[in-house]
Structures are given as structure tokens and as C-alpha cells.
Amino acid sequence: MKLVVVSAGLSVPSSTRLLGDRLAAATVARVPGEADVQVVELRDLAVEIAHNFTNGFPGPRLSAALGAVEAADGLIVVTPVFSASYSGLFKSFFDVLDKDALVGKPVLLAATGGSARHSLVLEHALRPLFAYLRATTVPTAVYAASEDWGADGLAERTERAAGELAGLLGVWPPAGAGAGAGAGAGSRSGEAYESGVPSGPEVPSAPGAEAAPGSGAELPPVVPFEQQLAALRP
Fold first, then answer.
1. Are 52 and 62 in contact (CB under 8 A)?
2. Separation in Å, CA 225 to CA 78, 135, 219
């Protein structure tokens, strides 16, 4: 199986790339056998994309990236939010892609931004774009605001979206979709987020209530966002 991640992040390291990597890892974990994951960094293709618009011919690196997307079994696309929409670089790449390249292809939509107020960009901008390209988008899209890194919710949305993509890739039921995952799907944390939009604060536990030892309720340590980005530096 070949999975391609298209990242429109501009900085190095990039939270957009980090989100794409997490989604890819969660999807590969559900796919039996070997999975080939390729990352297309649009930042490195910006000049060739612009030249393609003016002369009608893709450069060698852009041609290879377009070929990888066309040959992929599934896509994960991630863009930063600029002016309440996808970035111009992100849109330009899909403008030079053949109009029939994504027909029926499973696509997981994701975006990053500085504020949770932009989370609906997934539904009012990205989903219509890929509907026009006749791709098959997974129901759950993932948005990560700055405050989401290391907080509750992002990991659950990532796992849910990855499971849906794995299902479209023919892995059904997705690995890990047993009783534990099914229980989580009906929990508040699973229902409270659709495309990254929180439904409200959690109801606090009763005073003095504690998780039973060994119940698995212990939370993993939170890694600061700056450390996660620093780990991506070469």
C-alpha cells in the first residue's frame, strides 16, 4: 500500500508536517503488511509550481510529486490556515494536478492554525475542493490549533480519522477497533469533536472520585509543543 502525505507547511520545523506525520503513523499502524509512506513538501516545490503556471510544464521534482500523488492508494493532505482558508501554495499544487487524478481516491483532510476559531476551514474550504476533484474524503477531518498540541482531544481525533482512512483503503474493521476503541467512539471525547470543533467543557468527576488502579485511566506525560517541533529539526 502506498500512502502519500501532502504538507503545505512553510516553516522548518513545521506543525503542519508534524500533524501529517502523526496521521500517517496512525494509519500505517492499522494496515497489515508493509506500507510505503512518502511525504511531499510543497515548500520545496513552490518555484516549479509557479513556473508550471507560466509555461505549462512541470519541473522534474514537481513531476515526481504529481506522479506520486496519482499513484497513491490514499492521501493525507495538510495545510496551514491563511486568511480563513487553505494556503495559496496548497491550492496551486492541486490546480496543476490532473483533474482526474483523485477520482475515487481516499483522502484524509487536515489543517493547522493559531486559533480554534478557524477549525471550520476543513468543511467550508477543503471538503468542497476535494469534492470538486471527486475524491473520497473520510468523515472525520482533523484540525490542530496551537493549544491542541499535548492537550486532550487531538490524539482521539487523529486515531478516529486514521481508522476511517484505513477502512477506505480496504482494512476493515480497522486494527484496534475492538471493544476498547468502540467504547471510546461513543464517549464524550469521541463525540465532542467533528473537524476539531469542541462542544463544550467536560463535566467534572464527583469529589473524591479516583480511577481504579490498573484501569488504564492514567494519562501519559504531556510533551510541550516546542519540544515536539524541536525533535523534527535535522
1. yes
2. 18, 32, 17
The single-letter DSSP state of residue 118 is: G
Whether 169 is in a domain gets the answer yes
Q: Is residue 206 in a domain? A: no
Which residue in 135, 151, 221, 225 sits closest to 193, CA to CA? 151
What's the total number of domains in the chain? 1
Q: Is residue 121 part of a domain?
A: yes
CA distance 32 to 163: 13
| pLDDT given at position 32 | 83
Q: What is the chain's length?
A: 234
DSSP string, 140-190: --EEEEGGGTTSTTHHHHHHHHHHHHHHHTT--SPTT-SHHHHHHHTSHHH
39-59 pLDDT per residue, tens: 999 999 999 999 999 999 999
Separation between Cα atoms, residue 230 and residue 76, nearest integer Å: 23
Give residue 39's domain range.
2-200+223-230
Q: What is the pTM of this model?
A: 0.73
* CATH number, domain containing residue 23: 3.40.50.360
